[in-house]
Target: Enoyl-CoA hydratase/isomerase family protein
Amino acid sequence: MTKQLFSVPVAPTNGSFVCTTPSDAHDNIYLLTFTSGADNRLTPEFLDAFTLSLDILEHQYPRGVLLTTSGIQKFFSNGLDLEKALSSPGFFENYLFRVFRRLLTYPMPTIALINGHAFAGGFMLAMYHDYRIQNPKRGFLCLNEIALGIPLAPPMRSVFISKIQDGETLRSMIIEGKRYTAQEALQAKIVDGLGDLTDAVQLVLDRGLLKIASSPAFVAMKERLWADVVDSIDSLAAHDEADELKAKRTVDISEEGKKRMLQWEKSKL
Model:
């Protein structure tokens, strides 16, 4: 029988994060289900509730394995509420990237149970988990920033570059904004399996994940494994500055090319 441990509200949407133990046989498997608005947009309030839920679980309950999923059938998360993100001072550093880092270095193995669409920031959120199980019957994974005309900030791209080794997959994902079905995501090794909660629990048992969090080296192992991703968050200002310098150099090269083109045009007169 499912046992509810705690609930954290997402006040503006009357939503919540509800933590339960879905398996009678394994009390230390925790399921955190989030439901907020129509599609679980990553707002400051949503991300604050996520952070608090992680804090409560870490400091009030025994180590185990954390599964996260959506209480909305159609969506895992549809990404950022751009209007709110851009109007909330420090949104990326103080809300979004804080949750990303927290998940990446969380002291329990984490599994994103992707039950529906995971677009843009929702896809990133899933990637910051240790493992991913996707619903084989519903939902796409997609980075659609290319369609929105929004470059990926360092923490938004580093997790994909570090966790996905195939260059063709990265090109299709980031440059083309490809939508991945569950079967395509599994083939590309973006997700670790297909299925539902039962399959996610089975992955925990098959991989012995309940034992892993008890190791005193667990967090340090993750920090070192994903050192480049952690650095993209912890040294965000330096990475942003490097991006700006690269962008300026690209503009300068283009302007130099324009001058050469004009000289070529003039030479034909």
In short: Strands lie at 3-10, 15-21, 29-35, 65-70, 75-77, 110-114, 117-119, 131-134, 141-142, 193-194. The two ends are 84 Å apart (CA to CA).
